[in-house]
Write the structure tokens for this entry.
Amino acid sequence: MEPVTPARAWNLPPIMCAGALAEWLQLSVGDLEWFADLKALGYQKNAARLRHYHYRVLLKHSGAIRLIESPKPRLKQLQRQILAGILEKIPPHPAAHGFLKGRSIQTFVALHVGQHIVLRMDLRDFFPSFAAARIKAFFRTLGYSQSVAGLLGGICTNATPRDVWSKPAFDINPQQLREARVLYARAHLPQGAPTSPALANLCSYRIDCRLAGLAKSAGVAYTRYADDLAFSGGDAFERAAERFSTHVAAILLEEGLAVHHRKTRIMRQGVRQHLAGLVTNQRINVFRDDFDRLKATLTNCVRHGPESQNHGGRPLFRSHLDGRVGFLETVNPARGKRLRAIFNQISWE
């Protein structure tokens, strides 16, 4: 298959066949086929040695289920090579801001600061919505053969065994459990693999193009951070925001994604406008409650010692607090400086 026209300028490795892919990954062909697991043996057989992932079922605050699928070290090494050697050479859409070098939640929200109205939408089951067939088709558009694209797609996707759901650590709604089993049983992008964020962004390129085009036609700004979508505009957008969100949902449905409608928010200037945990009304800022809680934690660390505040038993509590202060310093330097002064007074001995 001929690569799409822009791909000729991306300097991608010329991998012509399965043997060449095995050589590029420094594997035997047999090991390559085992890691790609195109026969889904890891799903069908209840044997730990045939599985390439560790699984952890989590319950979100909303009550929804999240499955973390962490690749074992050898597979993770292969995925990192694919990420560095292929995926990171492909430019993402300008509207995408998640998991990308030089972009962050601050660049995600920057276009929406001070806008008259902000529309926030959330996608359901973002990573598992990208099926293996879609990933394989993406590698085909880069010019790779059917066999090479299939093997690359196999290394980057996973079908979750049914027994992963048999003994959750908490009560799960039976209907949600059935839906999760069906969703994750199909080979998909695993949340936890190094390649999944990049592949999700790249496979969303057409979606971003369509949504950016829709936004432009309405005089609206658009950005996306993984499964968070943000649109903002002036007075004209306020009158059309609800109808606009319906058009967005229809486009996403056509592209195989679904909106979490209960999380859709239309935020006007009279209320707190927030995206990805940052306030955007007049300038980018953190929630006042978050600042106050962190300040109280740091103050109590100074007064009573850091162990008194490590309620979750974090092994790297100092690094955890340092990271939270550092993040606030990037968002609001003045407030961050005040918290840094308190942090520096903590005795860690």
